[in-house]
Amino acid sequence: MGRTTRGGYFGSCFSKQSGNNQVITSPQDCASDEKNGNDRDKNAKASCGNEVYKEYSVIGIPGDGRCMFRSIAHGARLRSGKPPPSESIQRELADDLRDKVADEYVKRKEQMKQWFIEGDFESNISQIRKPHVWGDEPELFIASHVLQMPIAVYVYDPKAGGLISKSEYGQEYGKENPIRVLYNGFTHYDALEFPISRRKGSKSRLWHFTFQMLKRLKAFI
């Protein structure tokens, strides 16, 4: 398994898609949404305090120690409108993201020393840069700022029969269509996609696209 340091691990993240996790959000969240008139994602089957996502696709990520960085890099590429990367390109993107995350740690040294990292800062940064050291919540937080994109982490809830949001990062960069990753609760991250029709804001974007296409067609008639 490897030994734990600052929330990361030495070794490989094991590629297993499982969900022995039960994540229950506070019932107050449900009441708060109703009070504020918030419309929940139609892909979510809501039951007081829970949003259970049952329509999704899991993109399997190799368990080579880069799984978290690979998953984020994969999602960032799709979010930018580019085709899915090959395994080798995905690895390159993951390693590049890892280096940028480590650099961002240095820029945020005082903040990160206080909030996340225990022990010697420089030695921890040197470990983060190693390609087979696992990423964790601090790296998710930093990655959202490096990419300037929101990142959402989901886990599978077997009792609910679907996915539940575990944590979100970088919401200051927007809340629509975040990079989505699936955490198995123990050792592995996979990339995650929701159907386009179920993404928040997708209807308005689809209507705008359709309207623009109709305008172009009309110009040729």
From TrEMBL:
Residues 56-195 form the OTU domain. Keywords: Cytoplasm, Hydrolase, Protease, Thiol protease, Ubl conjugation pathway. It catalyses: Thiol-dependent hydrolysis of ester, thioester, amide, peptide and isopeptide bonds formed by the C-terminal Gly of ubiquitin (a 76-residue protein attached to proteins as an intracellular targeting signal). GO terms for biological process: proteolysis. Residues 20-29 have a biased composition (Polar residues). Pfam families: OTU. GO terms for molecular function: cysteine-type deubiquitinase activity. PANTHER family: HIV-INDUCED PROTEIN-7-LIKE PROTEASE (PTHR13312), UBIQUITIN THIOESTERASE OTU (PTHR13312:SF6). This is Ubiquitin thioesterase OTU. It comes from Medicago truncatula.
